Fold this protein.
Amino acid sequence: MNIDTEAIHAGASHDQYGSVTEPVYRASTFAFRNIAESDERGRKIFSGEGGAYIYTRLGNPTNAALERRIAALEQAEDCVVTASGIGAVSTVMWTFLKAGDHVLADTALYGDTHGLMEHVLTKFGVEVTFVDFGNHGLVRNSLRPATAIVYFESPCNPTLKVNDIADIARLVHDINRDIRIVIDNTFATPYLQNPLTLGADIVVHSMTKYMGGHSDVLGGCILGSRADMTQVRTTGIEMATGAVAAPDNAFLVLRGLATLPVRMARHCENAAKIADYLAASPFVAKVHYPGLASLSGHEVARKQMRLFGGMISFELNATFAQTKEFVDRLNLVRLAVSLGGVESLLEHPASMTHAHFTPEELAAADITPSQVRLSVGIENVEDIIADLEQALQAALG
Ligand SMILES: *Cc1c(COP(=O)(O)O)cnc(C)c1O
């Protein structure tokens, strides 16, 4: 069926009472009638067959309903939901890496993903190299015999750089089919792009963002082959991270997912109009939005995305102090990290998420002092534009 329908119905459990929503199983443990049943449930879990429950760290029926739904949306064999997006990223790393392995990652990464790779994995004998994935020759030349994971995002945070998923997957797998290509698909969501169909092996999401969609829940998920997801469940989650999603949170994400297609369509429509407005503003020096033909990744975005997303970053014709003044003058658009909720949020990387970067590190990450990142909400677009305009006039007029 179409994704709009699957977001509402895929994998529904249809309980014996006819509940049209998924029951929430607030249970840590599930009793057996006898030892034989305990054996049988263990066999189902460890073989990857699923549908059996022992203890919620190994699986829970509410979480499983969410896993079936997301697997359908991402066209994946299987899915594991986690407590947060970083819970998903770290669980993938703890499942598939060992001392002596090498990870090749893009320079443009979510901050704590970068931190996990640079400061945590390296303590356990894993080597990590960061290169610009816009340069495919550099990606090819940076692969090593020990490379186990190639990791990137698209569009990237916070610069909206677009990476060509199919081209990178092909060049890596042509050299070594055993390397797992892992993609963080949080910015695009399964509605806009399905990396597994473009050659990726594993997809991770922060469900905290668009999938939950209402800024009221933390969550993450991991998608891929049944064999890989069984390993993620029985090694990564069960033993390594314990980053289990709470069933109540799984319920909230199921509720959010039902409206993901309509929300995304509106996020994208609003963002396209705001990108055009910003591109025409004398106060704005540069707009980064995959839907603008001027963005270098626009053609790749057209090829791999259904629409261009709800995230925009833009640089003002302003000093650092004037940029902060603009941010402080916003009323409707609220100043906050995170993204993907129904409400518009703006953050200033140079003084917030990336304040600890040196000027050299900011330059390497393509972040300028006058750059802000806008998560376009689903409010009336005229109201969002009016707020941006009054703040630009007040700070720069
Ligand atoms: C927010 C985010 C994460 C981390 O997710 P949490 O749910 O906050 O742990 C990872 N990747 C991207 C692209 C994100 O935006």
Q: What stands out?
A: DSSP finds 15 helices and twelve strands in the chain. The longest helix spans residues 260-279. Residues 84-86, 110, 113, 153, 157, 184, 186-187, 206, 208-209, 218, 220 surround pyridoxal-5'-phosphate (CB under 6 Å). The chain has two domains: 3-257, 260-396.
